[in-house]
Design brief:
The protein is mainly beta. Helices cover 14% and strands 36% of the residues. The protein is built from 2 helices and 10 strands. It has a 6-stranded antiparallel beta sheet with strand order 3-2-6-7-8-9. The protein has a 4-stranded antiparallel beta sheet with strand order 4-5-1-10, with no helix packed on it. A hairpin with an 8-residue loop joins strand 6 (85-90) and strand 7. The longest helix is centred in the N-terminal third of the chain and has 17 residues, at 3-19.
Length: 162
């Protein structure tokens, strides 16, 4: 085969391999009183076009006094150009009950940083569509800014991927 025939395939391979390379990871810490049951809870990192997450019980757990701190690490998708990010914690798991939504002041091209300040949820939402509502920027009537006193708190830091 001639090099002229292979050249477009080689160029396409190198362009796509760097375009989808994830060069950053976001480490989250989720804080709650030890009296808060998170055994059925879920964690979700959401942007306009993508989301990933899983059960809170699989997160790394450490105890500080009367507080549980759970740690999750996410490698944000670079497939889409994202502008808005949030963490959604659903204490009852999946699409059940009231979810806590934390808007994150970060961008796709954010640089590595130290820990952010702990933050309380921006709002709570009692909807099974809480993730897609955030993705589509839908203001659900099931949304409230009356944050419960026993809510979770979140902080994060951005690091270069290892």
């Amino acid at each position: 085969m001639k090099i002229k025939t292979l050249l477009p395939a080689i160029v396409l391979f190198f362009l796509t391999s760097t375009m989808f390379a994830a060069d950053k990871q976001v480490i989250f810490e989720i804080r709650a009183s030890q009296t808060v049951d998170f055994s059925k809870g879920t964690f979700e990192f959401v942007a306009e076009h993508s989301s990933e997450g899983g059960p809170l019980k699989l997160a790394v757990l450490r105890k500080e006094g009367t507080t549980n701190i759970l740690q999750e690490t996410v490698v944000p998708s670079t497939v889409y150009k994202e502008h808005r990010y949030a963490v959604i914690i659903s204490p009852e798991g999946g699409r059940k009950g009231v979810s806590q939504v934390f808007r994150l002041p970060m961008r796709q091209n954010s640089k590595p940083s130290g820990w952010s300040q702990w933050q309380k949820p921006d709002y709570i939402e009692n909807s099974k569509y809480v993730s897609s509502n955030f993705m589509d920027d839908v203001k659900s009537p099931d949304r409230s800014t009356n944050i419960p006193p026993d809510c979770f708190e979140v902080r994060y830091k951005i690091e270069d991927s290892k």
